[in-house]
Amino acid sequence: MDTDKELESQIGQWRGYVERRHAISSADTDEMEDHLRDQISDLSAAGLKTDEAFLVAVKRMGNVDDISREFAREHSDRLWKQLVLLPAAPDGGRTRPTRELFVVLGFAVGAALVLKAGLATLDEQDLARNVSLFVLPFLTGYFAWKRKVTHRLAAALVVPFALAAVLLNVFPFVSNGSTEVIAAIHTPIALWFAVGVAYVGGQWRSDRRRMDFIRFTGEWVVYLTLLALGGGVLIGLTVNAFDALGLSVEWVVEDWVLPFGAAGAVIVAAWLVEAKQNVVENIAPVLTRVFTPLTTLMLLVLLVAFATTGSVVDVDRNLLILMDLILVVVLGLLLYAISARDPYLPPDLFDRLQLVLVASALAVDLLMLFAMLTRIAEFGFTPNKVAALGMNLVLLVNLTWSAVLILGFLRGRREFGSTERWQTRYLPVFGVWAALMVGVLPPLFDFA
């Protein structure tokens, strides 16, 4: 009985891996699963153990990525035409523009209009505090619509945005004070987890769905960056073309193009990730394999620099902030690499490089903690020090156990799945910390 449960679990994990390839429909996956089960049955009858039969059957089925690419070539309408067209109707009717495209455009325009209204009515400080409230509710609404969430969940998703709006605008922040800046920085981080709840359709307890959200976040950043770069080039060319004609359009760009482009890009990037996820999944491993060694080299060089420049305690405050940002980038890179890796492949050189990356980040984190604790002992607590100290402690726990799990995987004592589960189950800690920075830290320091 235990063997049957283990086999069903393995088949379930394999099916989940296949289903993430959007070029393969559910019916195709069913057919592939039937073929896999037939192979397992034949191999078991030939005398192989269940786990051995499963591994051999999967190997005989071929590489799933190759299968995905084969389906992509044979069914190109599933990849490119799905962006703007629906598949042909069952009765042979004509295709028509997809309703989702118009829904996405509606949410994008709504976010842009709200942002434009905020720019016209709020001063710079109020705008900086509330900017995430102008856009992220529309992104959450898009996923709530797409996942067809229940009315109860939809109502629950309103709560964090309403609470954030109240706190940010009722708290008597000191003008340009530290707590105001900290709250403005951490609000979009906390609200991103509300976006995540909508993205997973309320299945927040599922490790697989949490990893899907991590993967989406990385891919969304990639697409948003590409849209921003492309939009910047297009705007620059357009402005220069009008300048050559003796016409000034800077005011149009500043008052309309930039607000609508920035807000709309947030929604459109999410839609592109949803529509073209299988394409970005081919990019993800490339990005991680390029930036992981570069980031590791950078951390090692920084550690050598710290060792040769004297006391860590005397390092510049701005350098401490910069190092914390680098650690956040390292964590994001680690999460993206884990989400892009096939958990069933054996350890390779890249996994060893990841261990070096995590170990280097840990060393930097410990140096930053030592420097901050020394500064706190000498000058006392401030909002900025508390925020930085807390973030470093959160990162320290995550990176430490990640290093242990990766080392265990390299030694063959753990499965890679344990590393995935650690990251997905630790994810809410970041959201809780960000929420504390918005709702608890400002009152503790009298909103200064």
TrEMBL record:
Q: Which UniProt keywords apply?
A: Membrane, Transmembrane, Transmembrane helix
Sorted alphabetically, which InterPro entries does this protein's record hold? Perm_prefix_1 (IPR047928)
Where are its TM segments located? 101-121, 127-145, 152-175, 181-200, 220-241, 256-274, 286-307, 319-340, 352-374, 386-410, 426-445
Q: Which NCBIfam families match?
A: perm_prefix_1 (NF038403)
- What's the protein called, per UniProt? DUF4153 domain-containing protein
Taxonomy, top ranks, is: Bacteria, Bacillati, Actinomycetota, Actinomycetes, Mycobacteriales
